[in-house]
Structure formats: C-alpha cells, structure tokens
Amino acid sequence: MNYQVVIPAAGSGKRMGAGQNKLFLSLSGTPIIMRTLLVFEQDSWCKGIILVIKETEREWFEQQIHKHHLTKVLSLISGGKERQHSVYNGLLQATSDIVLIHDGARPLIGQEAIHRVVLQAYEKGAAVLAVPVKDSVKKVNQTRITETVERESLWAMQTPQAFRLPLILKAHEIGAKSDKPATDDAELVEWLGEAVFIVESSYTNIKMTTAEDLVIGERLLLWEEEKRGS
Ligand code: C5P
Q: Which pLDDT value is given to residue 97?
C-alpha cells in the first residue's frame, strides 16, 4: 500500500489568537506542523508529502524541514485564500493512485488510523476519518432552539480524508468553479453524487484551533507516552 499526502499549512489561525501562523506554535517543545509532518515521514506507506504554505513563510518551513531531517517533502506549494484553494493547489502536484488530505493542524493523528482510511479508499474510492458526535445537537435561531437534531446519525468529520486521485481532482475542479465553499474535501465529492465512506477514528485526533486545544494536546501526548510505557 502507498499514498501521497497533501498537507495544507497556509492558514493564519485567527481563532488561536497567536498573532502568527498557529502551526508554528510549540506542542510539548516541537512546532505543531513538524509533529504532523513527522507522523507521515515515519509511515512506510507514505511515499511523499506535498506541503502547502504561504510564500512569506517558505524560509521557516525550509529551515524546519532541514532541522528535522525530513526526506519525504516532495514540494512546498503556494497556498490560496481559503483552505479549499490551498488543497487544490497541492492536489495538482499529486501523482499517486490514492491521495490523502490532512490538516497541518491535526498533529495527533496515528499511523493505525491513517492505514485504515487508506485501505477503505482503495476499496471504495473515498473515505474519511470521523467520530460519533457526543453532545446533543440543536439548531438555534438567535438564542432560541428551533430543532433537536437526531444524534444517532451525526458524525464529526476529521482528516485525513483519502481519495482516488482522479475523483478528488474532478471534485476540486468543480468546487473551484462554485461560489459556495465546501466545509471539507468530502463535501466536494458528495457534490459529484459519489459515495464517501466514514472510518471510525479516535477523539484524540483533535484540530489545534483555539488556545485550550494546545493544553489538551500536550496532555494527550503525555497520555500516549504513558500508554506506550505501561
Ligand atoms: O483554520 P483551520 O484550522 O480550519 O485550517 C485547516 C488547515 O488548513 C490548517 O492546517 C491551515 O493551515 C490550512 N489552511 C490553508 N490555507 C488557507 C486556510 C487554511 O492551507 N487559506
């Protein structure tokens, strides 16, 4: 089995309020994005990383790639205004049958989950990691609840999302022509009327979005270490 992965890292992370690209922030001593990249560097199925960055940050990335001895980063591609544009730019460089798209902001992804989503994409064409929603979910107008959504059928989507390359390229080509942004890459495939399958993931695969995610992330890293030690 093998795949290439497109990693969008060209955002600014305003919700983190760090005043810089949130992916540069340290998670237990290592920048978030380097933790993400190291997971793929160390996965034998990963045949190449296409990293999507802001041109103004190229030097930082080049230095870090050198410092961490990364050998699988095939190219540093310029990102776009929205995540969707950044991913599309990266996908145009991909050459493998199966391509993964993984947010740079999810450093706690594990190899076992990556392999399960890759296998499902080989079989079905499009697969995404997801977890069942834990909270009650309701629609709200201003502050008034208007509807309770049945939780049994609700799943929260994560990355990696894995696809056959021609399918995801076609989906992004059509997405690029639409005025409406998609919430994730799977939605673009859904627009084509193609089936996307979920692969159950772990609640630990969190996205570093706001400041408290860093605190949770550091604790989760310790927990993983404890589990490995026991
Ligand atoms: O902001 P959020 O965490 O949802 O972004 C998800 C990922 O997409 C991040 O890794 C971010 O760097 C990336 N991104 C990008 N280009 C943009 C916006 C976000 O590569 N224009």
A: 98
